[in-house]
């Protein structure tokens, strides 16, 4: 397999059309087409960007390995998230204000329902009610941890 084939494979796995993916990357569909046909290849800076988008290493993109070791960054946007962003950008100021207000209220509501716990060497978010139920089943009370002392 060669870079251009891997690029097509990764794009299709994520459900992007060539046109949507080119827009997402901020390049023309013709540039992406040339990459996918193997006519041209991106420079090293853009390869690093693609690796970040796909959450793979540059070595995987360049086909020097078949190991899909994830690139440790935030996951790429889903097609649905991209569609939401496109619609948001088309709204007027009033529409954006309404969406921003709802988003902030929902985010706060969800944040209030979860707490972060440390277990098995990692940090996890769990529902507060789960911790309270666990404490009741153990016949104890949940307690607050002073993170400044840790």
TrEMBL record:
Q: Which UniProt keywords apply?
A: DNA-binding
Quick check: keyword Lyase in the entry? no
Q: What positions does the domain HTH cro/C1-type occupy?
A: 7-61
User: Which Pfam families does the entry mention?
Assistant: HTH_19
Q: Which domain of life is it from?
A: Bacteria
Q: Which PROSITE patterns match?
A: HTH_CROC1
Q: Does the keyword Acyltransferase apply?
A: no
Q: What CDD domains does the annotation carry?
A: HTH_XRE (cd00093)
Protein name as catalogued: Helix-turn-helix transcriptional regulator
The species this protein belongs to is: Anaerotignum lactatifermentans
Query: What's the source species' lineage?
Result: Bacteria, Bacillati, Bacillota, Clostridia, Lachnospirales
């Amino acid at each position: 397999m060669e870079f251009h084939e891997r690029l097509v494979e990764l794009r299709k796995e994520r459900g992007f059309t060539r046109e949507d993916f080119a827009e997402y990357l901020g390049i023309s569909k013709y540039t992406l087409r040339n990459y996918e046909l193997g006519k041209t290849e991106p420079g090293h800076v853009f390869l690093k960007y693609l690796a970040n988008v796909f959450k793979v290493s540059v070595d995987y993109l360049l086909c020097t390995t078949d190991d899909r070791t994830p690139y440790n960054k935030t996951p790429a946007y889903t097609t649905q998230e991209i569609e939401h962003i496109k619609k948001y950008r088309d709204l007027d100021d009033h529409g954006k204000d309404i969406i921003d207000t709802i988003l902030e209220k929902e985010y706060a509501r969800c944040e209030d329902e979860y707490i972060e716990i440390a277990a098995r060497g990692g940090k996890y978010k769990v529902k507060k009610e789960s911790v309270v139920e666990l404490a009741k089943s153990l016949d104890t009370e949940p307690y607050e941890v002073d993170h400044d002392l840790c």
